[in-house]
Write a structure and sequence with these properties.
The chain is α+β, with helices and mostly antiparallel strands and 435 residues long. It folds into 3 domains: 167 residues; 70 residues, Alpha-Beta Complex (Aldehyde Oxidoreductase, domain 3); 123 residues. Helices cover 60% and strands 9% of the residues. The chain contains 15 helices and 10 strands. A 5-stranded mixed beta sheet has the order 2-6-4-10-9, with helices on one face. It has a 3-stranded antiparallel beta sheet with strand order 5-3-7. It has a two-stranded antiparallel sheet with strand order 1-8. Helix 7 runs parallel beside helix 11, helix 12 runs antiparallel to helix 13 and helix 12 packs parallel to helix 14.
């Protein structure tokens, strides 16, 4: 099921799926309408004041004009989409390209234009004149619907002009990435801990239990793990399967994927089944990878801090969005890594930790922005606010990050005034001693 969900997500977020569905819909609709009209289903005389009233040449002229105009506009829409993708990749980060291809607005506009074009062509081919040697036929209802569809397409073109201009703004990109990441956090970490202490459950496995390591036979990013299948495998064979890498890690051939015990029950079939639950691919994906959204926002901040762009305001926005994600993650308790039945352990999952998330969010931003007094003060201010809002047991991670920010700023800033300003901001963390 994990493999099927990942495949469905790839298909759903592609630029071809929704346009393909609408194209097929247009083709089916054209065949249905023309066949129904040829069979006398529609009372054309009653609808005379509403349907197209021209002859064969007029119908061909209208449909030909619509088809030619639509294919031209579709090419323009596709070109604008490609330009937006290139701009987002160079200005922000290549990781945000998935957000543009998965954008329902872009998919719907392309689908409406291509679907209407397909409908028009198929209706056009059914027009017959007396000189063709057959009974003359003008699909009046079909031509009328083509005119209606082209008016709808014009409305979508107006929408697309506004949508494409808005979608390449950094505020819209950050909002889309942050909301998707927050949704994934709530889905994968459903339990809220409020302000209670978070403690790790003890390891229920025997201390010296021997195990066999199952290694990868290929390379790629770990996109998803079918935990349900691993649990069922462990329950059916009375095994304990412990996941080794994190989702999102790059796996090398021969790298451990899981440890399985007892060794006597592990054969080639078990090894193949375990490998089959780890889904590797050429890039990280957000389906089970909460950290992917944090990496996206952090990459946008790093691009903004680069000398070629030098846009600290965008970096400030990224730090705010990272704080929003970390607050949501810090207030939630990861699911228990142990999957048991009747007190017997069968599967040990590996979930992302708050410490890893804080490092992914701020380590690179701190490294490249420590010499900028505005960035250093912003990081310290955000860390201080997070320390006030997360459970007490998760404050040491934030305080450690703040100490490193202050130390880097003190070592790399050129002027004493800037160092003093950063030190003053760091004092806000004094009321939050390590618990």
């Amino acid at each position: 099921m994990a493999r099927l969900r990942l495949l469905w997500t790839r298909v759903r977020d592609s630029l071809w799926f929704l346009p393909g569905v609408l194209t097929l819909t247009g083709a089916v609709l054209a065949i249905t309408v023309t066949q129904a009209e040829a069979g006398g289903v529609f009372d054309v005389e009653m609808l005379r004041s509403w349907v197209f009233g021209g002859g064969v040449d007029g119908a061909r002229g209208v449909l030909g004009t619509i088809a030619g105009g639509l294919i031209t506009v579709t090419g323009v829409v596709f070109s604008v989409t490609i330009v937006a993708l290139q701009l987002a990749s160079s200005q922000f980060t290549p990781r945000v390209l998935r957000n543009f291809t998965a954008d329902r607005g872009n998919q719907l506009v392309l689908g409406v234009f291509i679907g209407t074009f397909t409908y028009t062509l198929l209706v056009l081919r059914t027009i017959r004149s007396a000189s063709d040697g057959e009974n003359p036929f003008v699909p009046r209802v079909g031509v009328t619907l083509a005119v209606v569809f082209v008016l709808v397409a014009i409305g979508f073109l107006i929408f697309y002009i506004n949508h494409s201009a808005r979608s390449i703004q950094v505020a819209a990109i950050l909002d889309r990435v942050a909301h998707r990441t927050l949704r994934d956090v709530r889905r994968l970490f459903p339990e809220q801990v409020g302000h209670a202490d978070v403690s790790r459950p003890p390891d229920p496995r025997p201390a010296e239990r021997p195990s066999v390591t199952v290694t990868a036979d290929g390379a790629g990013y770990l996109q998803a793990v079918d935990g349900r299948r691993l649990f069922e495998l462990g329950r059916g064979r009375r095994l304990v399967i412990a996941m080794e890498p994190h989702v999102g890690d790059f796996i090398l051939p021969g790298q451990p994927l899981a440890t399985v015990s007892p060794p006597d029950e592990v054969d080639d079939a078990v090894r193949a089944a375990v490998r089959g639950t780890f889904l590797l691919g050429p890039e990280r994906t957000p389906e089970q990878d909460v950290e992917f959204g944090i990496v996206e926002i952090s990459d946008i901040a790093l691009k903004a801090l680069s000398p070629g762009i030098n846009d600290p305001t965008t970096a400030f926005r990224c730090i705010d969005r990272l704080a929003e994600v970390l607050l949501e993650l810090g207030r939630r308790d990861p699911p228990s890594p142990w999957r048991t039945e009747r007190g017997e352990v069968h599967y040990l999952a590996r979930h992302p930790t708050f410490e890893r998330a804080v490092g992914l969010a701020f380590d690179q931003v701190r490294h490249f922005g420590a010499s900028n007094p505005g960035i250093a003060r912003k990081l310290l201010d955000v860390l201080a606010r997070l320390a006030e809002l997360v459970p007490a047991s998760r404050r040491p991670v934030l305080l450690a990050q703040a100490r490193v920010v202050a130390a880097d700023a003190d070592a790399r800033m050129a002027t004493a005034a800037d160092r003093a300003a950063v030190a003053e901001t760091a004092r806000r963390l004094a009321p939050h001693p390590d618990p």
